[in-house]
Design goal:
By secondary structure, this protein is α+β, with helices and mostly antiparallel strands. The protein has two domains: about 1-140 and about 195-205, no CATH class; about 155-190, no CATH class. It has four helices and 14 strands. The N and C termini lie close together (about 5 Å). The structure holds zinc ion (3 copies). One zinc ion binds next to loops.
Length: about 210
C-alpha cells in the first residue's frame, strides 16, 4: 500500500479564522464562529487528484510538498509520501499485520489509539486509489463529544468527597451528594477539551 500524508487548513469563509481540515469530510465546523463550512466533493477532487498522481508516481518515500492555494477556499496544504504512523510516538504502522478491519489501530509500542476507516465512496471520486484513511479526527457529526478523553471521568467533589462522573459538557457541575456547584479545575477541563492542534491524516492507496 502507498501512503499519502495530508495536513491542511482553510480560512473560514465567514470569519477568516484558520480551520484545520482533520480528515476527508464534506462539512467542517469553524471552531471560532461555529459556522458549518461545506467542503464539496469536486473541491476535494481538484485538490487531491494531483496529490495522488505525485505521491504514487513521482515522490520518493519522505518527499513532500507544501502549497498555499487560492481557489474555492484560501487554504494551505502539506502533503507527502509518508507511511501512516502512531500520532503519539510516531512509530510506523505495519498495516499488513496490525489492521484487521477494526476502527482503532492500537500502537504496539505506546498503546495510543489512532482511528482508521475505509475510504468513503465519495472520496474515491477525488482519490480513485484510496482504500484506507488513518488518523482522521472525528467529523462534524461527532463534534459534540468531548475531544480529549473518551467516556466520562471520575472526579471527587471538593466539598464532600463524593465521586462524580464528569462528561465534559459543562464546566460547572452540581454534586449529586451535597448539591454544591463544583467548578472543574483547569487541568481536568483541558484534558477534556484539548486545544486543537494541526492534525496529520493519511490516505492508504492500492
Ligand atoms: Zn469561522
Ligand atoms: Zn505509539
Ligand atoms: Zn459534594
Amino acid at each position: 500500500m502507498k501512503w499519502a500524508m495530508i495536513e491542511m487548513s482553510i480560512k473560514c469563509p465567514h470569519c477568516d479564522s484558520p480551520v484545520h481540515v482533520d480528515g476527508p469530510y464534506r462539512k467542517i465546523l469553524c471552531g471560532s464562529c461555529q459556522s458549518e463550512i461545506d467542503f464539496p466533493g469536486d473541491v476535494w477532487k481538484d485538490l487531491l487528484e494531483d496529490v495522488q498522481e505525485e505521491v504514487v508516481n513521482e515522490f520518493e518515500e519522505g518527499e513532500g510538498s507544501n502549497s498555499t492555494i487560492f481557489g474555492h477556499f484560501n487554504m494551505s496544504m502539506t502533503y507527502a509520501k509518508l507511511k501512516a504512523y502512531c500520532r503519539n510516538c510516531k512509530r510506523d504502522f505495519d498495516m499488513e499485520t496490525e489492521y484487521t478491519g477494526q476502527d482503532m489501530l492500537v500502537c504496539p509500542d505506546c498503546g495510543a489509539k489512532t482511528p482508521v476507516f475505509p475510504a468513503p465512496e465519495w472520496f474515491k471520486g477525488a482519490m480513485s486509489r484510496a482504500k484506507l484513511i488513518v488518523g482522521a479526527l472525528p467529523d462534524i457529526e461527532n463534534v459534540d463529544e468531548p475531544g480529549g478523553l473518551s467516556g466520562p471521568v471520575a472526579f471527587s467533589c471538593p466539598q464532600c468527597g463524593g465521586s462524580l462522573m464528569i462528561d465534559g459538557k459543562d464546566r460547572i457541575v452540581i454534586c449529586e451528594y451535597c448539591e454544591t456547584n463544583v467548578y472543574l479545575p483547569d487541568d481536568l477541563w483541558l484534558r477534556l477539551h484539548p486545544a486543537k492542534k494541526k492534525n496529520r491524516w493519511f490516505v492508504g492507496m492500492e
